[in-house]
Specification:
Layout (H helix, E strand, L loop, with lengths): L3 H13 L21 E5 L2 E4 L4 E4 L14 H11 L10 H13 L5 E5 L2 H16 L3 E5 L12 E2 L9 E2 L6 H4 L2 E4 L4 H10 L4 E6 L15 H12 L2 E5 L11 H6 L5 E4 L10 E5 L1 H4 L18 H16 L2 H24 L4 E5 L2 E5 L8 H4 L4 H13 L2 E2 L8 E2 L6 H18 L1
Parallel strand pairs: 3-15, 5-8, 5-9, 9-10, 10-11
Antiparallel strand pairs: 1-2, 2-3, 4-12, 6-7, 11-12, 13-14, 14-16
């Protein structure tokens, strides 16, 4: 595989961009080698600057449910651009997409548009604090809610201690209000709530985390969080930036039948363009300025291009629920093929799967939280990644990222993925 153009671009990029990339995972540090620079994408494929084609299983980290560069989305963007690219003023489409989101997502009665998932989660925590008059919140170890200061916190020395800054630039003062708990562990949540009685504004989590690889909630876990929050007056926030409109029309909360108080959403509501949103109960969202005292603003919030793409995407998903049966079927075929190969090769690795998301963990232990995910052999995953890449399959360049499938994957492409996986597993063992 010839990647000289990508190598040259990466060398040049490092002179002008920190680390040569605009988001750390793109640097391939976790899998070795140099990053591949992408020139274009279409359907199930991406194409690099050297002309190599790859079957791609990231789909811009989730939103490309219908595949890359879908004609319907592309047409909506082009048509919207004819009227201008940014107004910094209200538009009719903002109202239309807000109405659509509230009809599709069970917990959302009102919604506010922002420009990214990070903005959505930062804003949701601020609103929860303003609504409750409390400062602290609980997040789960290994869950990623963007790069806001209060989310970049690692665990303290015990369940009831404050967290520690996970990155230079995050103050200890910020960290002291972030409490951490293992995912799928209600007992630690109860301990934290008891130790910080009446001080916790919110519990935020990915209901189905995808940022430590895909991990599934244990039976009763989400229900348990809902009960604790109801009892203690805590705002329950589901970060559905990855799972919203992917696992079901109404996201993970529809799939599991658990309604949070607030929900954060990401790129899919812009058809893959830069956008995010947070929403929830009317009484909570009415605390947001100008309706209430909690300030949040943005010139590009509700950008007309993103709204046109998002309205087109969400309308299609709303009107074609059969998309989810198709997505789930594709996921089952790929995961079934991988399981068959693992059995054939006598490899007892852990394969977590839900709908159109899956992760192959290079460990024989069950993966149910961040600590168990870290049992995975990351060096072996790096070899697997490179082998798959050279076979024309582009995976997430980290053991700790879920894969996301699209309806653009035909039976022929699914077979290619399964065959490449088996060949790669043979090659690295």
């Amino acid at each position: 595989m010839q990647i000289s153009n990508s190598k040259n671009l990466f060398e040049k990029a490092q002179k002008f961009i920190p680390g040569g990339v605009n988001s750390p995972v793109r640097a391939f540090r976790a899998v070795g080698g140099d990053p591949i620079f992408i020139k274009k994408a279409n359907g199930a494929h991406i194409y690099d600057e050297d002309g190599n084609a790859y079957i791609e299983l990231i789909n811009s980290w989730g939103p490309m449910i219908l595949g890359h560069n879908h004609p319907m989305i592309r047409e909506a963007v082009i048509k919207a651009m004819e009227n201008g690219t940014s107004f910094g003023a209200p538009t009719a489409r903002e109202v239309e997409i807000a109405e659509l989101i509230t009809s599709m997502v069970p917990s959302v009665e009102k919604v506010r548009m922002v420009n990214s998932g990070t903005e959505a989660t930062m804003s949701a925590i601020r609103v929860a604090r303003g609504f409750t008059g409390r400062d602290k919140f609980i997040k789960m170890e290994g869950h990623y809610h963007g790069h806001g200061d209060s989310f970049l916190i690692s665990a303290g020395s015990g369940a009831i201690t404050m967290g520690n800054p996970d990155s230079p630039g995050v103050t200890k003062g910020t960290a002291k209000d972030t409490l951490l708990a293992p995912y799928n562990d209600l007992e630690t949540i109860e301990t934290l709530v008891t130790a910080n009685k009446g001080e916790i504004a919110a519990i935020i989590l990915e209901p189905v985390p995808g940022n430590m690889g895909l991990v599934i909630p244990k039976e009763g876990y989400l229900e348990g969080l809902r009960k604790i929050c109801d009892r203690e007056g805590i705002v329950l926030i589901f970060d559905e930036v990855m799972t919203g409109f992917r696992l079901a029309k109404g996201g993970a909360q529809e799939l599991f039948g658990i309604k949070p108080d607030m929900t954060t959403l990401g790129k899919i509501i812009g058809g893959g363009l830069p956008v995010g949103a947070y929403g929830g109960k009317k009484e909570i969202m009415d605390f947001v300025s100008p309706a209430g005292p909690v300030y949040q603003a943005g010139t590009l919030s509700g950008n007309p291009i993103a709204m046109a793409a998002g309205l087109t995407m969400l309308s299609y998903l709303n009107e074609h629920p059969e998309v989810y049966d198709e997505l789930n079927g594709i996921g089952s075929q790929i995961v079934g093929g991988i399981k068959t190969s693992l059995d054939k090769l006598g490899l007892n690795y852990t394969l977590n799967h839900l709908g159109s998301m899956y992760s192959l963990f290079f460990t024989n232990k069950e993966v149910y939280d961040f600590a168990s995910a870290k049992h995975a052999d990351t060096a072996l995953f790096g070899k697997y990644f490179q082998s798959m890449l050279h076979k024309g399959i582009y995976l997430a360049p980290s053991q700790f990222e879920s894969l996301f499938l699209s309806t653009a994957l035909s039976k022929e492409l699914i077979d290619q993925i399964i065959q490449a996986n088996e060949a790669a597993l043979k090659e690295i063992h």
